[in-house]
Specification:
Order of helices and strands: HHEEHH
Radius of gyration: 21 Å
Number of helices: 4
Helix content: 55-70%
């Protein structure tokens, strides 16, 4: 199979591959999913060979994204994703808590969705600024 990309498309592919591999492998520690690392290595090697050597470090154990690439802003996209996931999950969990985890179908589903949206709007506007966590035993 052959895939033809412009340099700009290859650069964007590097971002996609890096972000995807980060999401899949960063929480795994030493239990990484090797095929994803291998694909990342091949894509960054191709970028280096196609006139973008600043994106990759070619080492004896494979090609890895260069430190300037890693430090260049790609993690901002990952942080945006992580924040969105965090606030989406937190909004739903708090809304379900408010409804005492009752079965949410029909009218209950509409109430759940409304509460999720209220929490999400609050978090979008203020982050965690207005969140108060009580100490164990506080009323």
């Amino acid at each position: 199979m052959e895939l033809t990309l412009t340099k700009k498309e290859l650069r964007l592919l590097c971002d996609l591959v890096y972000i995807g591999n980060w999401i899949l492998n960063s929480p795994r520690g030493d239990e990484r999913i090797e095929p994803y690392d291998a694909i990342e290595s091949r894509v960054f090697y191709a970028a280096a060979k196609e006139g973008m050597p600043e994106l990759a470090d070619i080492t004896s154990y494979g090609t890895i994204p260069s430190q300037p690439y890693v430090d260049g802003g790609v993690h901002e996209a990952i942080l945006d994703y992580e924040d969105a996931c965090f606030f989406n999950i937190l909004s739903e969990e708090l809304a379900r808590r408010d409804l005492k985890d009752r079965d949410v179908d029909g009218a209950d589903r509409e109430e759940l969705d409304a509460r999720i949206n209220e929490y999400y709007d609050e978090f979008s506007a203020n982050g965690l600024e207005n969140v108060v966590v009580k100490e164990p035993g506080d009323k």
